Write the structure tokens for this entry.
Amino acid sequence: MIYFDYNATAPLVEEAKQAWNKAYEESWVNPGSPHQASVEVRAKFERCRERVAELLMCAPEELVFLSGATEVCNAWMRSFAKSGEKKILVSKQEHAAMHESAQEYLGDRVVWFSPVAENLIEVLSEKLHADPEIGAISMMAANNETGMVFPWQEVAILCRERGIPFYCDTCQWIGKQPLAGLEELDFFCTSAHKFGAPKGVGLMKVSGRFGTTKSFVGGSQEHSLRAGTQDYANVAALSAALEVAISRTTTENINTRLKWRDEFVEKLSQRLPQAVVHGRGKACLWNTVFVALPGRQKAIDWVDALWKEGFAVGFGSACSTAKNKTSRVLEDLGVDPEIASRSIRISAGWDRSKFDWEALLEVILKIHQKFSEDQTDSLTEVVSID
Ligand code: PLP
């Protein structure tokens, strides 16, 4: 299988696998127990926290390990809702984890905005100025469907100036893009399976400037911000995978991969001029292409046909696949629902090569040819029945 669905999840990197195995072999005891074996695991756990904090440019005590970004989004929105009566500006393109948490915990205290608005910072400033009841902003750093990147560094500055919290979902950013500016965020988060660690572990930064952001209650683990037995093996794997992912985010690596992606888009558009690449011409992650392919076939037909040829791709957000709904992100971009229904998401990882992109293009062209022939045959049959 040639895997092009990294925005849904990434395979385990060898370093994470080794770290997890070693930790589970040698250090499986509960880090919260009082005996000496636990004291040692606790010390190792805290060393991981220090290393991860160093990599992510924050203080160890600002980091909370938990199950992943969905838990974080719930924690942030619930904590903000409980902290007072203020409203929050939330981007329409947030992942369902944030979007639905905002709706669930804040209801009509949510003011939606489009992150692709021209002069976004001015738009947000005006909204804050016009309504003093707005007391926070939530916007992701990079979109999981289109790969479009948003000016989160500037939103962080705006929020700093206004003295309000900025909840930034950096799930698709960390491990893919350079981290400059992360130190300015009071709140960021990620799920470790997006960059090569196991599923079910992630982290959030909570600076404390705006009070605490509790995930679960019921125990004093994670500075009382996330109750539940701590999982040293998962955190050791997260730390190892993060180290590897960050070491790959060099300018040279990113530029090379951006070139492969752009060449793919360019050649695809030349060969299939009716293909619609969402967010084309906008700043985008080096790994993602969200494209509506021409013809009558729906995204699922393309996904199945590509799978038969040995390629795994997705359509939109993996979490909304089961819901079979039009992508909210494409709606916000003003994409026609029919075009949206033909859109597949291609997302590469660091180990995808130029040849993989080229092979994918050839296979898409081959399938398109087959679909067109099938269509012509079925039209001919209809004509002959008449
Ligand atoms: N936020 C973004 C931007 C994501 O891409 C995802 C996962 O796809 C999540 C949040 C939720 O992550 P998880 O399902 O690991 O909790």
The two ends are 44 Å apart (CA to CA).
